[in-house]
Design a protein that fits this description.
Layout (H helix, E strand, L loop, with lengths): L16 H5 L3 E8 L5 H11 L5 H13 L19 H6 L6 E6 L4 E6 L7 H8 L4 E7 L6 H12 L4 E7 L8 H16 L5 E6 L23 H7 L12 E3 L2 E6 L2 E7 L4 E2 L4 E5 L3 E10 L2 E2 L3 E2 L3 E6 L10 E4 L5 E12 L11 E5 L2 E15 L4 E3 L9 E14 L10 E5 L6 E10 L3 H10 L20 H6 L6 E6 L6 H14 L4 E5 H4 L11 H20 L3 E5 L5 H8 L7 E7 L2 H7 L4 H6 L21 E4 L5 H14 L7
Parallel strand pairs: 1-3, 1-4, 4-5, 5-6, 24-26, 24-27, 25-26, 27-28
Antiparallel strand pairs: 2-3, 7-16, 8-9, 9-15, 10-14, 11-12, 11-16, 12-13, 12-15, 17-21, 17-23, 18-19, 18-22, 19-20, 19-21, 22-23
Helix pairs in contact: 9-13, 11-17, 13-14
Length: 656
């Protein structure tokens, strides 16, 4: 049997050589429960695309006959094509990560066949860490298993943008459309918790070849593409980060006094001659003089290309430094928060140092704190003292010298790292950076700055009174201005009630404005996260904006979780005492979870959202709110009526 991929490239026609080298490359991984047929599926892909050497095929056929593993049609056990270890062949399972290479006329492929057993989670993380796409198999006869969900969670954690759910062994359920749709519905509901962006379902039989390479005559009800066609056509070019230029320097090349270049691989973004760049950590600036390779100079280099960059100025740059665009820099710091998979049989020790390898930089590091461990079966968070083999947890890591990093969700190349045991030189953990570590002193200082009565202001500015004072505006209206601040847990009904109140008052001719948390975080507060200091700054900004609307004569509604009592008290003091109404939308956590109108609690349980109020971040209920709404027992209409009634009694709006 001739080959049609990596093996056949050497015998390709000369004029096709360049086309082969320039073909698009797709890296994908397979995962799923034990015996779901991952190795068989890959074997079928290789077999049906004729991507196997003759001697390989003969060896598999001989092994299949010896072990009595051929099927009724005398087709050998295709799983043996990827089960390379003796223990794998004997047990019929995958233990280590098996990489296979093949190509079609449309694309080249690198496959990582990863284990399905729980104890080999670290191997799955290793195989999937560089994947553009994940193929997760589900046995149609068994339905969605815990491991199917586990691997979906890990794929989402690793930021794999495309998930293909292959419902395998359809031949065992008589190619039932109903079975396929039930599995598709169940897994779609689960994937919603993972924020999966591209989810594709394909019914297949790896053993029989249905819908793997060729369309199945047994499932005419399925109108989608085959697995191979999807792999050939899925768009992965758009997944590369071409916006943020990051160039970790691997080595300095200086063959003579006339040439000094910096070699490395463009981690992300694009670099061109003439670009102004900055060298980190020094912060010195220069201009790119040339971008060159062994074959000659380039007009530009993109993410993934190995090049040598020369600069117009003689600045100090060495291995481990990073060249970046001057107006687009990564975070520079010695403290990071990350999701980390522990890969060592020796548990994590917080009282010893490790070596942290990040891009081309290696620094001494300590794991200062374990925020929680994720139970990958239930996706719940657990408080633990250490991480053990295959555990995945949220950790705080400090380093002896600064790293130059981005969040993993934005840039996989600069958002990933590994920990190395300095004594055995083995890799003990792989991490995905979620953001800068929160410094306790910084948080405390920020909270103090936003304490009651203290308002920041720019230097060299003079306060100008309002052109038309609020009192004049109110004199021409039928109502007074007020600030109505709705606070409560996510899912309590704050926004729903506030919208109903505003609509009713607007219909009565009242001048209104509603500020909602989701709206301001799309613009005004789009640069803020959800740490304590960021939450405080979010409320400060909203309070100042609300005050401006208040001074325009509007009844201003603000719907914000605003979990900290001091922040709400600070906003209260921006307004006259009788014009601020704190509305506590009181609901228990379980009711809020059941409602979950935006799917946020589901994402919390899936490990996608951290520092979520009421779950793993505190909520300080109001002590003396003007209005309390028990929305578990009140309808939206009843709640709105109560707010309007009290505004009428306070003389803010006239009675209807």
């Amino acid at each position: 049997m001739t080959t049609n991929g990596t093996a056949s490239a050497a015998s390709a026609p000369e004029d096709a050589g360049n086309d082969y080298l320039e073909m698009d490359l797709l890296r994908f991984t397979t995962a799923g429960s034990v015996d779901d047929g991952k190795s068989t599926l890959i074997g079928r892909l290789l077999y049906d695309t004729k991507s196997i050497f003759q001697d390989q095929m003969e060896a598999v056929e001989e092994a299949s006959r010896t072990r009595g593993m051929t099927d009724d049609d005398d087709v050998p056990n295709l799983a043996l094509l990827t089960d390379g270890l003796r223990a794998e062949r004997e047990q019929g399972i995958t233990i280590d990560v098996a990489y296979r290479y093949f190509a079609t006329p449309k694309r080249k492929f690198i496959i990582a066949d990863t284990p399905g057993h729980v104890q080999y989670t670290r191997n799955m993380v290793t195989g999937a860490s560089t994947a553009d796409l994940a193929v997760i198999l589900i046995d149609a006869s068994r339905g969605v298993q815990t491991q199917s969900k586990r691997h979906g969670f890990i794929a989402a954690l690793l930021g794999i943008p495309h998930l293909v759910i292959c419902v395998n062994k359809m031949d065992l359920v008589d190619y039932s459309e109903e079975v396929f749709e039930d599995i598709m519905d169940e897994y779609t509901d689960f994937a919603a918790k993972l924020d999966a962006k591209d989810l594709t379902f394909i019914p297949v039989s790896a053993l029989r070849g249905d819908n793997v390479v060729d369309r199945s005559p047994n499932m005419t009800w399925y109108e989608g593409s085959t697995l191979l066609h999807h792999l050939e056509t899925v768009n992965v070019a758009a997944d590369k980060n071409l916006r943020d230029f990051r160039f970790p320097v691997q080595t300095v090349i200086r063959p003579n006094q006339q040439f000094r270049g910096f070699a490395g691989t463009v981690a992300s973004g694009v670099v061109r001659p003439g670009d102004e760049v900055m060298a980190l950590p020094a912060g010195t600036k220069s201009t790119v003089k040339e971008v060159t390779t062994f074959q000659g100079d380039l007009n530009e280099a993109r993410a993934g290309e190995a090049v040598v960059v020369t600069l117009a100025d003689e600045i100090d740059v060495s291995r481990g430094d990073m060249l970046v665009r001057t107006g687009n820099t990564p975070t520079v710091g010695t403290s990071i928060e990350a999701m980390m998979c522990w890969m060592s049989e020796e548990p994590l020790a917080k009282d010893r140092h490790y070596l942290l390898r990040h891009t081309t930089r290696e620094v001494k590091a300590f794991v200062d704190d374990i925020r929680y461990r994720v139970d990958v079966d239930t996706l719940h968070r657990e408080q633990v003292e250490n991480l053990e083999l295959n555990d995945i947890g949220r950790v705080l890591v400090s380093t002896a010298s600064p790293l130059f990093f981005d969040r993993y969700s934005l840039n996989k190349e600069t958002g990933a790292f590994v920990l190395i045991d300095p004594y055995s030189n083995t890799t003990v953990a792989a991490g995905m950076i979620r953001g800068e570590g929160q410094d306790a002193d910084k948080v405390a200082a920020e909270a103090q700055r936003l304490s009651m009565g203290e308002r920041p202001q720019s230097e060299n500015v003079v306060w100008e009174g309002l052109n038309i004072p609020r009192e004049e505006r109110e004199a021409k209206q039928t109502h007074k201005a007020a600030a109505v601040w709705f606070t409560g847990l996510s899912g309590s009904g704050k926004t729903t009630v506030a919208r109903e109140v505003e609509r009713q008052l607007f219909e009565r001719g009242i001048k209104t404005m509603l500020l909602d948390g989701d709206q301001v975080r799309h613009g005004l507060c789009g640069d803020l996260g959800f740490s304590q200091s960021d939450r405080s700054e979010n409320i400060r900004r909203v309070g100042e904006v609300a005050r401006l609307f208040f001074e325009s004569g509007a009844v201003t509604f603000c719907t914000f979780v605003s979990p900290y009592r001091d922040n709400r008290d600070w906003v209260r003091h921006l307004f006259p005492e009788d014009r601020f109404f704190e509305v506590f939308v009181d609901v228990d956590l379980e009711t809020a979870r059941e409602r979950d109108p935006k799917g946020l609690y589901a994402k919390v349980d899936a490990g996608e959202i951290d520092n979520f109020t009421g779950v793993d971040a505190p909520y300080e209920a109001p002590e003396n709110p003007e209005i309390t709404l028990q929305t578990a027992g009140l309808s939206v209409e009843e709640s709105a009526a109560e707010v309007i009634r009290q505004l009428e009694e306070a003389g803010i709006v006239p009675a209807a």
